[in-house]
From TrEMBL, chains A, B:
InterPro entries: Alpha/beta_knot_MTases, PUA-like_sf, RsmE, RsmE_MTase_dom, RsmE_PUA-like, tRNA_m1G_MTases_N. Keywords: Cytoplasm, Methyltransferase, rRNA processing, S-adenosyl-L-methionine, Transferase. This is Ribosomal RNA small subunit methyltransferase E. It catalyses: uridine(1498) in 16S rRNA + S-adenosyl-L-methionine = N(3)-methyluridine(1498) in 16S rRNA + S-adenosyl-L-homocysteine + H(+). It comes from Enterococcus ureasiticus. Its main location: cytoplasm. Signal peptide: none annotated.
Length: 249, 249
């Protein structure tokens, strides 16, 4: 069943009205008709099953059939922060990471980041990533689409450390010396409803100075097993492990 | 340090000789010189650190410095089988899945597979996937490059079920009805050194008839959490969870 994200919070109403891009998708792309059902996902993460009652020239009218029962969201709040990687890797991380349940993505210029994006380019990039996140959230039946934040300075990332219950840094050098327990320990300490920020370097990794600063502000460095993972693969590993730990075990 | 895969098993020798494609890579691409070191990974999964002693016009001579100590391979033997997906998704699964530790990849024509590859096309495709697996194994510092097998009939996949200690089938319908424990239970029953085959459908998923046949031959259907994962994302989820469970927890 098709899923549409609305920008307003849920409110019990006789009718819900859809216009604009979602209207276009329902009527022109999906060619839906009255009596067909869709999911409507509200900004407060509540979702309902709704039935189309009327289609006019510029609006679709729907009535609530029932609340969506299933909890589709990770029970912990995960933010994935990536040092701006090359090419379209960030798009890839956002698409797959949304499927895997990330709540938010932050891009930031790490010391080894090759790409330099100015204010205008960042805004454009952010819009594109938000669109990718929304599509992936719809496709994977999530209850909301993750936020995208692209920072202009690495310091801005450090400034948000204190708003998280835990901050981890995936660090290849930890993996190389055989550090294998900190990630699992951190997850075992994390409680349902808490928030975790996990930081990944760009292709060139982090400098010792960057790692030192992260640690000063409370970040915990950890390895992700004995194999060296690419910049874009490591976030997938972390999100899969978190889902496994909190949703399946 | 660069890593090269050799087709012969390890044997203690005074000198190791490298020719062909690896020679080209060492001498022309990396422009290495005598006294520089590389990893040599043998077909029996043993790897050594070796030092270049001589470079001639068509061969590099190396001597063993030490055995590689770190265990880079998953402690369980994982085979990922994918119903042939569209486009280059199988290449993507092989690249990322190799980083994440898969021992073998099997491609097979599922009922919903759109692509139809004949014998010749399969052989060409296999060569390409083997090259991708070898490159990803080098990059992620693995001790061997995974095997690639592309089957012409789905029955050939079922025929190998009995050679595995466990066979799992990732099934979206299981996830939808809230089945969340079988995957973790299967992993908890799996012992170090044992083998597991995990089967993933193409974009269209499996038909009820296919699932029934898999089950008749001992396959266990399982869900992978509450979100719907794409055909190429689900194998990453499974491999990450296995690494987490067996290497980090």
């Amino acid at each position: 069943m098709q899923r549409y994200f609305l920008t307003e919070p849920y409110e019990a109403k006789e009718h819900y009205v859809i216009t604009g891009e979602n209207y276009h998708h329902i009527v022109r792309v999906m060619r839906m008709e009255t009596e067909q059902q869709v999911f409507l996902a509200f900004s407060d993460r509540l979702a309902i099953i709704a039935e189309i009652t009327e289609i006019t020239e510029d609006a679709v009218y729907l009535k609530e059939v029932s609340k969506e029962q299933a909890e589709k969201e990770l029970p912990v709040n995960v933010t994935i922060a990536c040092g701006h990687p090359k090419g379209d890797k960030l798009e890839w991380v956002v698409q797959k990471g949304t499927e895997l349940g990330s709540h938010k993505f932050i891009g930031f210029p790490a010391k080894a980041s090759v790409v330099k994006w100015d204010h205008k380019k960042l805004a454009k990039k952010r819009d594109r990533l938000k669109k990718i996140a929304t599509e992936a959230a719809e496709q994977s039946h999530r209850q909301f689409a993750p936020d995208i934040v692209l920072l202009e300075k690495e310091q801005e990332l450090i400034d948000v450390f204190s708003s998280y219950d835990k901050v981890l840094i995936a660090y290849e050098e930890s993996a190389k010396v055989g550090e294998r327990s900190r990630f699992a320990t951190a997850l075992s300490e994390l409680k349902v409803g808490e928030s975790i920020l996990i930081i990944f370097g760009p292709e060139g990794g982090f400098s010792p100075a960057e790692i030192e600063t992260f640690q000063e502000y409370g970040g915990i460095i950890c390895g992700l097993g004995p194999r060296i993972l690419r910049a874009e693969t490591a976030p997938m590993y972390v999100l899969s492990a978190i889902s496994y730990q909190f949703e399946l075990v």
